[in-house]
Amino acid sequence: MKIRAAVLETMGVPRPYVDSKPLVISELDLEAPGPGELLVKIHAAGLCHSDLSVIDGNRPRPVPIALGHEASGVVEAVGANVTRFSPGDHVVLVFVPSCGQCLPCAAGRPALCELGAAANGQGTLLSGAKRLRCGDQEIHHHLGVSAFADYVTVAQQSAVRIDPAFDLTKAALFGCAVLTGVGAVVNTGAAPPGSSVAIVGLGGVGLCGLLGAHVSGARQIIAVDLSDEKLQLAAELGATHTFNARADDVVDAIRDASVGGVEFAFEMAGSVPAPELAYNVTRRGGTTVSTGLPHPERRLEIPAASLVAEERTLKGSYIGACVPSRDLLRYMSLYEQGRLPVDRLLSGKLELDDINAGFDTLADGIAVRQVIILG
Predict the structure, then answer these.
(1) Average pLDDT per 10 consecutive residues for the chain, totaling 375 residues
(2) Which domains does the chain have, with CATH numbers?
(3) Which residues contact 182 (CB under 8 A, 6 or more apart)?
């Protein structure tokens, strides 16, 4: 079938993107779903820093590639051997398909699926197939999803069925921002009620992390960002203290406010200075969690002796260490109870043709979560 999709042919083109147009809205051929795959009509797709990192070259991927990974939609058709989905099902798509058989999957850590990671790195679906073409040229899939399109073919392991009554525009955010941000606090950090927490970086993931800290009962939530507007929103969403990262002596100020440093610090910005700041504001015996993905050649420097002398913990969190089929539905339930107000993060709705301007807005740090409406 013919579809419209946003295709990136060259990484690292100069800004503004509204002029250089790194994403080209192209007519592609989409193959029917193969065994274990679904055809999904996309309703909404969020603009995420993980997409921006491919556009600007900080997260290298094979090109040409159809971008987009945070989305919701409706199943249109299913391939052979699909037992978990039927046409008409409402789904949220997730960007790590899990095979269920490798060692991490068997250990209950599907976010670290080895086959899923290999497929994502090669720009294929979980089966190794590519279902997108432009004439005779194959187009790579982005994280098994390629959601900036009106239709996608995905592995059934890339989808979670949701209640059809749940608003599909808001549902899109749960596939990446919510799973990653809330999961980092709840699963990876496992911050208990009464903890002191710092959130460094207040994009969509960071603000979801803040919501996760709030719903988990943190007694102190310190929000850190470069944007005063995002700091104001953080305060409205439950932050007890806010600090602009550009301020002089910001580390000392945060350690003073938390009486020696926070017990849990979460870096959610994706630039190397952010995890360094997060580590520096963590107290003795505390835990620092990083969710950001800077360029793979960048290095993080920390005082090595502090890991032992202060019994510190530094760990990463990918997709919030979530089990999507379990956690996504839990977080949706919390939203419906009014305890996880994810809708406050929606910055605006765009059409597919406005995607390059949308990524300019994201790169400028103005928006939290913009959503392209396709359905």
Answers:
(1) 98 97 98 98 97 95 98 98 96 96 96 97 97 97 98 98 98 98 98 98 97 98 97 98 96 98 96 93 98 88 93 97 97 98 96 97 93 94
(2) 2-175+341-373 (3.90.180.10), 180-319 (3.40.50.720)
(3) 208, 209, 211, 212, 215, 320, 327, 331, 340
